[in-house]
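It is worth pausing here to work through a concrete case rather than discussing structure prediction in the abstract. The textbook approach is simple: state the sequence, then state the predicted structure, then interpret. We follow exactly that order.
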Amino acid sequence: MIMRQCIFAYSHIQTALQIATEQPECEELIAPLAHALAEIRIVQGKIQQCNRTRDNVVPLRVADCRSKKDGDDAASN
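Step two, the predicted structure:
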């Protein structure tokens, strides 16, 4: 369900980015929209990682999906 919403959001932001690149008055929107697309891709990767973990019958916690800090193991939180 979450992945479906990410795909939906990605599609809409991608459309907005395309429109912004075609209209000079929207130039200031290009960078934030491109950044949003990159962030959604990161979230999608984390969702896939969590799904693989769940499929391997390992208990899934919210902390498991959070990004790990340098030297910080999210599972130990």
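Step three, interpretation. DSSP finds three helices and no strands in the chain. The longest helix spans residues 30-55.
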